[in-house]
């Protein structure tokens, strides 16, 4: 098979279907070329070659692919009318990495490759543009040295060694912009850069173009295993063996003068999802200048420019003079660009993120990809594309990454508090959201505070990990397409970029605005939707589920076969979950209610009692409190089913273990300290999670089950009488392992219910079922199903007991297990289909053998994890249950599983 796939001249060997082989960038370059978009000619070395390189080493691989590479370069030469390695008429190349998924800024790019002292002369002869040539040369040395030769700043407080030289020269020359450098300045830079390389590497900068090319290709391969790529892969779970492709392509130059430019654009707003073409550009610039924030980039559209001017409080005259849009400066080229972006969005049927360069009045497209976006933009764009007819319902649903919905469920600033807050500075609304935290200036210190805001002059790919940890990101430089902005939107992290008024000093760790100074650790708040940076902590409130988000939820429910319920222990959580669309409660843990101050006393009194009579007295105190809780929950659930689990944890969790609190307990209950201590000792177990808990409690102390059953039934009857709500309690017996265990509990519940109905002279419907969380229960599921109305898989305990991993101690080795690949996922996070999943499947099947209509659900943490939800669907469950904030995620995941 081919090692090299060519593209350019409106044709290509590959296309977008070859993403795995050509990487995202290469596949899309080929695709664009095929559909007639002007792309500089070039070729892609496949990801397979990257893998071969890892296995076989540099020499073998270069020897093997060299003939194909030479032949492909000849084709570029023919198209471009220049020759690679020629002194008089040199062809310059860009060498770009590209993995199968876009990893923005993760891998490295080298531009202007092929330049050396001779080629510089030839190119000046050919173009008559001395400035452009020296500018390209100094850029080349700078990039090549960073990427291929590995020259990095020595301390984190330092600038990149080349930036240092640039800053120094700017200061000496009293200029601020790269474009103000004279030819002589640029020549000086080249000289100084080469000196740095000589000093730091002990060797001269490589001058042979072919050496340069292979050096760059190998560097791209190596970057696949660099720190940044490793971290990004780990974060997203991408496997190592994917490898990266290398794209080698003819250079086109945005730095040839006032008729040249470079830029980045989006077919829609990546922050909000609005259907508005937008982007940024720079005249007489190259490559990453726009993204790196070397100069403040300009807006592509007139509308964008005006919006920007409004935020920056710049007058219309000033705007037109200093910050004009591409639409106004190069209207013809803008029109052409506008058409390409429409064409590309229609072709890919998704929001595109594109890069372009204008060389002396000719427009070239350098990249397109499905744009990274915030959770809000993801939802809006999918629903808009559906409305516009570009997607059908199922495709639109599949465009949603359920986990990213989490972003939409985060708190937003309270408008009242926002009005009162003091605005420190104004930046660009780079990634919407609300964040509050303490200032840190270095990415590797983001974890210094529990909530931190990373404040940087600009960010670089090295900062990724810290950006992920921080609550929000602020940069003084860079626009809406800067590294910080793009990465933040991808993470759904709040970001304000380009807040030019901030004077950041890394050495003193301070931030100055006007004459006010802020230190590391000071609290600030940032509003990613307006670009405001605010002093101190600004209050937040719960978000609402409306607009496109609500539409998405409706669409999900249309396809999902499972219901989504919530785990909720109190009316507040139940109400939140209802507002997110939960259709019932899958798990109410009754013990959580016992931890409140006055209740714990009664609970302890019950535990301490040595006689049934004593226990009953204490339980009678608890009864009205529990009843009240249930009434609140039934009311909040408005008639949807509510599964209530009987007391589950070992009793010793309710007694105090510190001397001081034991003393309080003794006083409260009017007994001796010794008696308390003795009881605590009596209750202590070596392995409490496998000890006296669950239905083992209910079977040794039946009066507990009796009280709880009474509280549930009475609450339902009361709510019916007082509010007219027909509740549907499902009473759940935990930790069942034998049939008889369940039967005894069932009998108590039934008797209590009947007795209560008689007293109330009324009835309500209710069911009695069991948790499936002990492996033995799943084996005997057919027998249990004869007596149980429903099963609810408690996959937390089931995972714990199937693996034999203690949930509370597994942290110590799980990390190592994941790193060594012994486990693919944390089984407490992602349901283990292979093992635990078999028990779930078998339990469900056996249960339904005896009772075909048996209701089956899941109430473990897994109920809100998309891949586990998909498994529950496969098994044929009736519902999943998860925490309130996971309900929308589970609804979409359930729909995706069904289509
Ligand atoms: P990344 O994946 O980090 O975006 P790219 O490979 O897209 O890296 O390269 C970064 C930048 O270099 C591009 O945005 C583009 O401006 C510039 N560039 C890449 N290839 C060329 C080329 N053939 N001609 C001119 N500029 C290029
Ligand atoms: Mg890059
Ligand atoms: Mg790019």
TrEMBL record:
Single GO term (MF): pyruvate, phosphate dikinase activity
Enzyme class: transferase
Function: Catalyzes the reversible phosphorylation of pyruvate and phosphate.
Annotated InterPro entries: ATP_grasp_subdomain_1, PEP-util_enz_mobile_dom, PEP_util_AS, PEP_util_C, PEP_util_CS, Phosphohistidine_dom_sf, PPDK_AMP/ATP-bd, Pyruvate_phosphate_dikinase
Annotated organism of origin: Robiginitalea marina
Domain PEP-utilising enzyme C-terminal: from-to ranges: 547-897
EC number: 2.7.9.1
Domain PEP-utilising enzyme mobile: 450-531
Record's catalysed reaction(s): pyruvate + phosphate + ATP = phosphoenolpyruvate + AMP + diphosphate + H(+)
Gene3D superfamilies: 1.20.80.30, ATP-grasp fold, A domain, ATP-grasp fold, B domain, Phosphoenolpyruvate-binding domains, Phosphohistidine domain, Pyruvate Phosphate Dikinase, domain 2
Pfam families with a match to the protein in the record: PEP-utilizers, PEP-utilizers_C, PPDK_N
Family membership noted in the UniProt record: Belongs to the PEP-utilizing enzyme family.
Protein name: Pyruvate, phosphate dikinase
NCBIfam families associated with the record: PRK05878.1, pyru_phos_dikin
Domain Pyruvate phosphate dikinase AMP/ATP-binding per the UniProt entry, residue ranges: 20-61, 64-388
Cofactor list: Mg(2+)
PANTHER family found in the cross-reference section: PHOSPHOENOLPYRUVATE DIKINASE-RELATED, PYRUVATE, PHOSPHATE DIKINASE 1, CHLOROPLASTIC
Keywords attached to this entry: ATP-binding, Kinase, Magnesium, Metal-binding, Nucleotide-binding, Pyruvate, Transferase
């Amino acid at each position: 098979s081919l090692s090299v796939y060519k593209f350019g001249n409106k044709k290509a060997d590959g296309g977008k279907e070859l993403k795995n082989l050509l990487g995202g960038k290469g596949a899309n370059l080929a695709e664009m070329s095929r559909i007639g978009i002007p792309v500089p000619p070039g070729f892609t070395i496949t990801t397979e070659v990257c893998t071969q390189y890892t296995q076989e080493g540099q020499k073998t691989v270069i020897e093997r692919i060299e003939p194909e590479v030479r032949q492909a370069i000849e084709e570029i030469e023919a198209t471009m009318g220049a020759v690679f390695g020629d002194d008089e008429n040199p062809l310059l190349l860009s060498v770009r990495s590209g993995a199968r998924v876009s990893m923005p800024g993760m891998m490295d790019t080298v531009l202007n490759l092929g330049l050396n002292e001779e080629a510089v002369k030839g190119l000046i002869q050919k173009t008559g543009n001395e400035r452009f040539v020296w500018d390209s040369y100094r850029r080349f040395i700078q990039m090549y040295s960073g990427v291929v030769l590995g020259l990095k700043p020595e301390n984190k407080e330092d600038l990149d060694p080349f930036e240092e030289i640039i800053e120094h020269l700017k200061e000496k020359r009293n200029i601020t912009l790269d474009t103000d450098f004279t030819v002589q300045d640029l020549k000086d830079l080249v000289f100084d850069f080469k000196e740095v390389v000589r000093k730091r590497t002990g060797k001269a900068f490589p001058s042979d173009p072919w050496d340069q090319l292979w050096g760059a290709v190998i560097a791209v391969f190596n970057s696949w295993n660099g720190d940044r790529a490793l971290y990004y892969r780990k974060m997203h779970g991408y496997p190592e063996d994917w490898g990266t492709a290398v794209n080698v392509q003819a250079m086109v130059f945005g730095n040839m003068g006032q008729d040249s430019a470079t830029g980045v654009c989006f077919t829609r707003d990546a922050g909000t999802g609005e259907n508005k073409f937008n982007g940024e550009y720079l005249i007489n610039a190259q490559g990453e200048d726009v993204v790196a924030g070397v100069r403040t980039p300009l807006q592509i559209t007139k509308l964008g420019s005006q919006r920007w001017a409004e935020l920056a409080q710049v007058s219309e005259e000033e705007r037109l003079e200093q910050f004009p849009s591409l639409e106004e400066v190069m209207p013809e080229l803008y029109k052409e660009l506008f058409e390409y972006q429409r064409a590309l969005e229609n072709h890919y049927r998704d929001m595109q993120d594109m890069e372009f360069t204008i060389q002396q009045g000719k427009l070239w497209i350098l990249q397109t990809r499905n744009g990274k976006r915030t959770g809000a933009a993801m939802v809006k764009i999918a629903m808009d594309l559906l409305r516009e007819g570009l997607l059908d319902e199922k495709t639109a649903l599949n465009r949603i990454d359920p986990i990213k919905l989490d972003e939409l469920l985060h708190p937003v600033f309270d408008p009242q508090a926002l009005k009162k807050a003091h605005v420190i500075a104004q930046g660009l609304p780079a990634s919407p959201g609300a964040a509050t935290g303490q200032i840190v200036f270095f990415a590797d210190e983001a974890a210094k505070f529990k909530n931190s805001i990373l404040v940087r002059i600009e960010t670089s790919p090295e900062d990724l990990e810290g950006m992920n940890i921080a609550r929000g990101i602020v940069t003084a430089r860079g626009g809406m397409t800067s590294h910080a902005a793009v990465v933040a939107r991808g993470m759904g992290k709040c970001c304000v970029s380009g807040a030019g008024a901030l004077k950041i000093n890394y050495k003193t760790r301070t931030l100055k605005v006007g004459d006010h100074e802020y230190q590391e650790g000071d609290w600030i708040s940032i509003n990613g939707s307006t670009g405001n940076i605010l002093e101190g902590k600004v209050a937040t409130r719960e978000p609402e589920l409306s607009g496109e988000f609500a539409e998405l939820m409706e669409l999900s429910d249309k396809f999902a076969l499972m219901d989504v319920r919530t785990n909720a222990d109190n009316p507040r959580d139940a109400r939140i979950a209802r507002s997110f669309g939960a259709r019932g409660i899958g798990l109410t843990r009754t013990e959580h209610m016992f931890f409140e101050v006055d209740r714990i006393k009664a609970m302890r009194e019950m535990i301490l009692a040595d006689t049934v009579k004593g226990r009953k007295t204490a339980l009678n105190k608890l009864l009205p409190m529990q009843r009240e809780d249930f009434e609140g929950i039934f009311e909040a659930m408005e008639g949807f089913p509510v599964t209530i689990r009987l007391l589950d944890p070992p009793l010793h969790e309710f007694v105090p273990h510190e001397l001081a609190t034991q003393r309080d307990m003794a006083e409260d209950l009017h007994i001796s300290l010794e008696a308390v201590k003795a009881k605590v000792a009596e209750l202590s177990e070596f392995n409490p999670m496998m000890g006296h808990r669950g239905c083992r409690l209910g079977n040794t102390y039946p009066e507990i089950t009796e009280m709880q059953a009474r509280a549930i039934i009475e609450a339902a009857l009361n709510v019916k009488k007082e509010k007219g709500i027909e509740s549907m309690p499902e009473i759940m017996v935990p930790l069942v392992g034998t049939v008889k265990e369940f039967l005894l509990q069932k009998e108590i519940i039934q008797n209590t219910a009947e007795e209560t109905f008689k007293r109330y002279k009324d009835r309500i419907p209710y069911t009695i079922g069991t948790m499936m969380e002990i492996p033995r229960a799943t084996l005997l599921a057919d027998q249990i199903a004869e007596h149980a109305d429903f099963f609810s898989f408690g996959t937390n305990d089931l995972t714990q007991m199937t693996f034999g991993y203690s949930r509370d101690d597994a942290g110590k080795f799980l990390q190592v297990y994941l790193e060594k690949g012994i486990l693919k996922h944390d089984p407490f996070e992602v349901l283990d289909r292979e093992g635990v999943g078999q028990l779930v499947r078998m339990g469900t099947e056996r249960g339904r053998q005896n009772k075909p209509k048996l209701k089956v659900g899941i109430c473990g943490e897994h109920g809100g994890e998309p891949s586990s939800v998909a498994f529950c669907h496969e098994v044929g469950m009736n519902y999943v249950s998860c925490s309130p904030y996971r309900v929308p995620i589970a609804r979409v995941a359930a729909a995706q599983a069904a289509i």
